[in-house]
Automatic annotation (TrEMBL):
SUPFAM superfamilies: ATPase domain of HSP90 chaperone/DNA topoisomerase II/histidine kinase (SSF55874), PYP-like sensor domain (PAS domain) (SSF55785). The keyword ATP-binding applies. Residues 252-349 form the Histidine kinase/HSP90-like ATPase domain. InterPro entries: HATPase_C_sf, HATPase_dom, PAS-like_dom_sf, Sig_transdc_His_kin_sub2_dim/P. Keywords: ATP-binding, Kinase, Nucleotide-binding, Phosphoprotein, Transferase. This is histidine kinase. The keyword Transferase applies. It is an enzyme of class 2 (transferase). The lineage of its organism: Bacteria, Pseudomonadati, Pseudomonadota, Alphaproteobacteria, Caulobacterales. One of its GO terms (molecular function) is protein histidine kinase activity. Its EC number is 2.7.13.3. It catalyses: ATP + protein L-histidine = ADP + protein N-phospho-L-histidine.
Length: 355
């Protein structure tokens, strides 16, 4: 244990303090009332590159190259020595020749029977590395925030360009419908135009939402309102009702679900209510565990009885592909009246409720 050249103290408290310093793995100094070093732990000598021969009788301000000669620290130590202040978690920068170090100091005044025999026990914690790591972490967080902001700007630009492109394509298809003479060609172009409008409706709704997960109730409601406004002439005659639970889905899943809803609703509007027939279309979504069921039903004319009229169209292929992508199956039933189409993703065994 490095100590000053003073004779071993007889005071029991001082002897105990010296023993604690000897056993300390943290940098510790024992000072007298004049801020002269009485003892120093080996860890202090190693941490601050101080030689054992420099300790006996040395004042704190004279250690090293004078980096400990800090007026504010000296004032606090003297005030603590005379019981006028205390030093708890005091942070300071130690500017040595090897660079600046950030330290936390805790100083305790040891009480003896002799009031003139003042001793200060000072423990030191070097937080330089922790501070560097904290700054690095802050820099990483700042860089991440910048990337997120740049991504948001990029997504907005892509959405804007996508919307413009869809409008151009839809306009070109509409011009083609007017020019072609074949009824079959016009039907195909109308179907293609309807597909473009379906994608545009989904894109328009997602463009107004936050990045990341999507709250499905508001998403489906806005999506169906957009479809209804463009395709339903009399809302008193034909109603489009949306019932969705509190489910939240990823943006990728939301796109697929939105396209399915759009295809099914548009299909019902086109085929279920001929000759301005009254009716309603219901869109319902319910989650069960990690599974879910999306149902679009109508009370229209129902499924065609002639097999020739039941030939699957482009929309059916799109819905089938999207359902497969979502790991779901399609169930179509004649609900008399109307048609009920359910897209079902069954829950895994782990999420099924106990019976």
């Amino acid at each position: 244990m490095p100590t000053s050249s003073l004779a071993p103290p007889s005071d029991i408290a001082l002897t105990l303090a010296l023993s604690l310093i000897s056993a300390s793995v943290a940098p510790v100094l024992l000072l007298d009332g004049n801020l002269t070093i009485v003892a120093a732990s080996q860890s202090f000598l190693e941490a601050f590159n101080v030689g054992l021969e420099d300790i006996p009788g040395a004042r704190l301000a004279d250690l090293g190259g004078g980096e400990w000669n800090v007026p504010q620290l000296r004032s606090l130590l003297m005030a603590t020595a005379f019981g006028q202040a205390s030093i708890n978690a005091y942070e300071m920068d130690l500017n040595a020749g090897t660079g600046s170090r950030r330290l936390i100091l805790n100083v305790q005044r040891l009480v003896y029977d002799d009031a003139d025999d003042i001793r200060l026990l000072m423990s030191i914690q070097d937080i330089t590395e922790a501070q560097v790591q904290r700054r690095q972490t802050e820099d990483l967080i700042r860089q991440k925030d910048d990337l997120i902001r740049d991504k948001a700007i990029l997504v907005q630009e892509v959405q804007h360009r996508t919307a413009n492109s869809l409008q151009i394509i839809a306009s070109v298809l509409m011009q083609g419908i007017r020019k072609v003479g074949s009824d079959e060609s016009r039907t195909h172009l109308r179907d293609a135009h309807q597909r473009i409008m379906s994608v545009a409706a989904v894109q328009r709704q997602l463009a107004g939402s936050e990045l990341g997960d999507v709250e499905l109730r508001g998403y489906f409601t806005d999506l169906c309102r957009s479809i209804g406004d463009s395709m339903i002439r009399d809302h008193n005659q034909l109603a489009l009702i949306v019932k969705v639970d509190d489910s939240i889905a990823s943006s990728g899943k939301s796109v697929s679900l939105g396209l399915i809803v759009t295809e099914l609703v548009i299909n019902a509007l086109k085929h279920a209510f001929p000759n301005d027939r009254d009716g309603r279309i219901d869109v319902d979504y319910r989650a069960h565990g990690d599974g879910w069921t999306l149902t679009v039903s109508d009370d229209g004319v129902g499924m065609p009885h002639d097999p020739k009229n039941a030939k699957p169209g482009l929309g059916t292929g799109i819905i089938q592909a999207l359902a497969t992508q979502l790991g779901a199956v399609i169930d179509i039933t004649d609900s008399s009246p109307g048609v009920r189409v359910s897209i079902v993703c069954r829950p895994t065994a782990a999420s099924k409720p106990a019976v």
